[in-house]
Amino acid sequence: MKTNPALTPLTFEPIFMERVWGGRRLESEFGKKLPAQKVIGESWEIVDRPEAQSIVRNGPMRGKTLHELWTQNRNEIFGDVHDTPRFPLLLKLLDAHDKLSLQVHPPEEVARRLGGEPKTEFWYIAATDPGAELYLGFREAITREQFEKALHDGTAADHVHKIRVKAGDVAFLPAGRLHAVGAGNLLIEIQQNSDTTYRVFDWNRVDDKGKPRQLHIDQALQCVDFDDVRPQLLHPEGELLLRHDLFEIQKWNLDSAREIAPRRRFAIACCLTGSVRCADVDLGPGEFFLVPAQLENRQLHSRPEGTTLLRITIPKL
Known about the structure:
Layout: E1 15-23, H1 25-30, E2 40-46, E3 48-49, E4 52-53, H2 66-72, H3 74-78, E5 89-96, E6 102-104, H4 108-114, E7 121-128, E8 133-138, H5 144-153, E9 160-164, E10 170-173, E11 179-181, E12 185-192, E13 198-201, H6 217-223, E14 240-243, E15 248-254, E16 258-259, E17 267-273, E18 276-278, E19 281-283, E20 288-291, E21 299-302, E22 307-313
């Protein structure tokens, strides 16, 4: 295979999203240059969607969109991957200053019926306030009719399974799992390329005009897995956090130089602590780069001691 000597690890401009539950922690913890006076809940770090495009900010491909790379430079950047219309992953940082709404994402067959997109996701907890929780599935067995009544009574929170979390915890959220991020969580989200969310309960909150946020109860009830009782966090052994059809995620303690992936395979690194270098590109905590499939210099180097990172790939064909 011919290599492109101009290739380099690709970094992208983050896209900041205002959210009512957001804060400023992406700035204080990860050094993001947030817009002044804005409440930012999400930083979309790598995304290829019609309404949101990652733009390369370094090297000879600076200014190109991720979609242009996917459609015009597929082989040299991504190598042997499934042929999909868009890059199939979406990578985000989330700052939950307040808790998110209780919500669900549709499984594939329900998404087709409702005109949405299926969405399965993974969370890595980067930092927490004391007592921070995740809400995953149901606390006890419940029927759709019982839960629907609780929604109308405003008591849905009584039926949600709560899990206390700390930095380093990981969770898998298959489509159909009822969930919410609790207040005081800073997390990294790796998900299917989708933006379909059905809010089912917003903790009886109202805005400054006394109005509740829009809910999608009918759609959500069609998606929720009512057999999902007391699901647990993942408890990985070794480096592998999760291997799924959509993505594979490992956590590395980078004690010595290491190749991020074999040739002809791309991979994404997200720095957690310390600093990591590949070729001439450095990452600090909360930053991502994409290592192209045809990049020759694929070695990751820890700058100080104690660098940790997430390594994200798409399983082989």
